[in-house]
Write a structure and sequence with these properties.
One of its GO terms (molecular function) is chitin binding. By secondary structure, the chain is an alpha/beta fold. It contains nine helices and 14 strands. Helix content is about 25%, strand content about 15%. The chain starts with a helix and ends with a strand.
Length: about 400
């Protein structure tokens, strides 16, 4: 599609109130991860293009590129059924996703490739040189097609489609991520002069500083940060309605990071939430969600909402409507007070999925043995443990209390 025709479509979408790609000045960005089918039900994850006409979302990170170094691997759950394998490689060639990326971009959506996920176990890179080399390789694979790519042996999973940038979703402490991310940034900034703007984002957990991503957060210029405000003590479910000072919910801490630490003074923070009660601990919706968003909008850095994930959100009737209503600002904005930066960070496990699970991997701990009639039993996905938690630790049968972090355990 010609550039003028594409932007004409985007202009029409704006007239009708649609979101049209990530905006660094907007407070109603909506990012929803696609590719892992975390609902894990028949038909719960449709092909990518199915979602792109929806006007309630504008950013889609594709999850996940979960092995960076050779052999590079991609996992898109059931969407991978429509891919084939490059000869002599374990890398997927996905012409359907190639076509869908172009369709989504013609409808104004920002399409990112998310790197990492729960199954990323490489631990980063042995040196800054290796990190830079692999950043350049990924850019050749997913950015603008390099000259003579076939003779250079570069396989492109999405063919001629060019993604709009990368999302870094590393779950565990890894080495040399700063030079890796900075080289991606360098390549994207250089290509921006060709008329297309590229986006770099990261998805830390809400405890600050984030154990896995703190070095990058201090040294890399990100366009937006999708903070995982769930499966942790500082999640949206810990928000106290009407209170200007929050003891656990710490959007204010991240706003302080944005103003005093971030390499990008205009960085946006997206409020990360689960798309259903099955998608992660601490799910909120409706009036609860509206209250949290109204509070978060009081911070300069607030840029919208991130949702995990597409299959959960679209199976949850009315959920995206409640997100859109909350972002439209139908409720009053609470003026927050300053939030002190925590002195230390807990090492926690971020929410997400693999092919067969609905939350990213956690380590189970000892569970309660059976229900006690006088004790309240926690339903599936309800909190059953964690620092500061004072509620019941016993789950409704047949569920058991599963450890996700020292701040959060839930019934699964």
């Amino acid at each position: 599609m010609a550039v003028l025709a594409r932007w004409a479509l985007v202009g029409i979408a704006l007239i009708h109130g649609a979101l049209a790609g990530f905006s660094s000045t907007a407070t109603n960005n909506v990012a929803i991860y696609w590719g892992q089918n975390s609902a894990n039900q028949a038909g719960s994850q449709q092909r990518l293009a199915t979602y792109c006409s929806n006007t309630k979302l504008n950013i889609i990170p594709l999850a996940f590129l979960y092995v960076i170094k050779n052999p590079t691997l991609i996992n898109f759950a059931n969407a991978g059924d429509n891919c084939t394998v490059f000869s002599g490689s374990q890398l997927l060639s996905c012409p359907q996703i190639e076509a869908d990326i172009k369709t989504c971009q013609s409808q104004g959506k920002t399409i990112l490739l998310s790197i990492g996920g729960a199954t990323y176990t490489e631990g980063g890179f042995t040196s800054s040189t290796e990190a830079t080399t692999w950043a350049n390789t990924l850019w050749a694979m997913f950015g603008p097609p390099p000259p003579s790519s076939s003779t250079n042996g570069i396989n492109r999973p999405f063919g001629t489609a060019v993604i709009d940038g990368f999302d870094i979703d590393v779950e565990a402490t890894s080495q040399n991520l700063v030079p890796f991310a900075n080289q991606l940034r360098t390549n994207m900034d250089a290509a921006t002069t060709q008329g297309k703007t590229y986006i770099l984002s990261v998805a830390p957990q809400c405890p600050y500083p984030d154990a896995a991503n703190n070095a990058m957060l201090s040294a890399v210029r990100f366009d937006f940060v999708s903070v995982q405000f769930y499966n942790n003590y500082c999640g949206v479910s810990s928000y106290v309605p009407g209170s200007a000072a929050q003891s656990n919910f710490n959007f204010g801490t991240w706003d302080t990071w944005a103003k005093t630490v971030s390499k990008n003074p205009n960085v946006k923070i997206l409020l990360g939430i689960p798309g259903s009660a099955s998608a992660g601990g601490g799910y909120v919706s409706g009036a609860q969600l509206a209250a949290v968003v109204a509070f978060s909008r009081g911070f300069e850095s607030f840029g919208g909402v991130m949702v995990w994930d597409m299959s959960q959100a679209f199976a949850n009737a009315g959920f995206l409507d409640s997100v859109a209503a909350a972002l439209a600002g139908s409720g009053p904005v609470v003026t927050p007070t300053a939030t002190a930066k925590p002195a230390s960070s807990a090492t926690t496990v971020k929410p997400g999925t693999t092919l067969a699970s609905s939350v990213r991997s956690g380590t189970p701990t000892a569970t309660t043995t059976g229900p006690v009639p006088s004790v309240t039993l926690v339903p599936q996905w309800g909190q059953c443990g964690g620092i500061g938690y004072t509620g019941s630790t016993q789950c409704q049968p047949p569920y058991t209390c599963v450890y996700l972090s020292e701040w959060w355990s839930h019934c699964d």
